[in-house]
Amino acid sequence: MSPRFKNIAIVGVGLIGGCVARDVRERDLAGKITGYGRNAKRLAGAAEQGIIDSWHDVYNDSLAEADLVIVGTPVRAIAPIVCDIVPHLSSGAIVTDVGSVKKSIVDAVESRVPAGVAFIGGHPIAGTEDSGYESSFAGLFENRVCVLTPGQCSCSRDVDSLESFWRALGAEVVRMAPEEHDRIFAAISHLPHMVAFSLVNAIVNMQGFDSSILRYSAGGFRDFTRIAASDPVMWRDIAMMNRDNVLDTIKHVEDTLSELARAIEAGDENEIERLFQKSRDTRRSI
Ligand code: NAP
């Protein structure tokens, strides 16, 4: 059974923070939801829509009331924010995040968290290419995976409690090391974004490109490039914070595209078909 928290603090009431808040409310998982952030007007807007109960645009002693803190800001802001808020927290509080990169955040935070407070990295594998609480909705995490990256010193009771929380939001929870998380998500999430951004740019940069041809774009181009509409700053930060893994995967795509180009150049139809069939079989097995 999921624990019911007294006060869940959400730092960064954007798309993911807003979705968490809506589910917490709908499933009655907290007595109160308090939003924190840097923009009073936006926080007030989220409160007006009933996503959060109250808000603060400073990290102050009101945080002492929170028994669960979820940091939902862009990845680069997460570690500095956790370091800023932990001195205000009461003993027993659990702090987690939803960032798409884990190792650099966990490394920066672990030694800064005082005794009595737990930090457990998290990453729900769910989202959209939209941003902001206006785009949030209930049920985003239903039947999705949420990765938790407990540290060596994480108390198992706290990890169990956070795991029950995500389960109550409908997610399947998987625990793994931050390094493993970053390696896996470089391949299956970060790389597709890098390729989608680059594919759109490659087409636009083609000699003689005329934007009117985009009106002929149908399923293929649209499906493949949906995520190229994602937030550029957020993805810049993810690329920088998972740099080595992302570079490895980009190199791998370059090699794989070159392999295909060689087969096409050589007119090797068997090889072209073999490559496409391999891909089709993998995609169909998902
Ligand atoms: P978002 O809609 O842009 O929300 C980010 C929120 O953080 C906004 O409320 C923003 O508020 C606030 N914020 C930004 N910088 C801040 C700072 N320095 N201090 C305090 N608040 C700040 O982004 P999102 O899509 O929810 O993504 C949030 C996190 O979830 C990211 O770490 C991302 O990696 C992760 N994630 C995203 C997805 C996805 O598909 N979108 C999926 C899984 C995980 P203001 O700008 O109004 O101040």
List the helices and strands and how they pair.
Blueprint: E1 5-11, H1 15-26, E2 30-36, H2 40-48, E3 54-56, E4 68-71, H3 75-85, E5 94-97, H4 103-110, E6 118-124, E7 145-149, H5 156-168, E8 172-175, H6 178-204, H7 219-225, H8 232-241, H9 243-265, H10 269-285
The structure holds NADP nicotinamide-adenine-dinucleotide phosphate.
The spatial strand order of the largest sheet comes to 3-2-1-4-5-6-7-8
Report the sheet with the most strands, covering strand number, pairing sense and barrel closure.
8 strands, mixed
Please give the radius of gyration in angstroms.
21 Å
Low-confidence segments: none
Give the terminus-to-terminus CA distance.
31 Å
SSE order: EHEHEEHEHEEHEHHHHH
Shape estimate: elongated
Structural class: alpha/beta
Chemical compounds bound to the protein: NADP nicotinamide-adenine-dinucleotide phosphate
Number of H- or I-type helical stretches: 10
Q: What level of helicity do the residues show?
A: 40-55%
| Average predicted local confidence, pLDDT | 95
Strands, total number = 8
Strand percentage, roughly? 5-15%
Key attributes of the depicted protein:
single chain; 286 residues; alpha/beta; 8-stranded mixed β-sheet; 10 helices; 8 strands; binds NADP nicotinamide-adenine-dinucleotide phosphate
Concise synopsis of the structure shown:
With 286 residues, the chain is of the alpha/beta class. It has helices spanning 15-26, 40-48, 75-85, 103-110, 156-168, 178-204, 219-225, 232-241, 243-265, 269-285; strands at residues 5-11, 30-36, 54-56, 68-71, 94-97, 118-124, 145-149, 172-175. It is 48% helix and 14% strand.
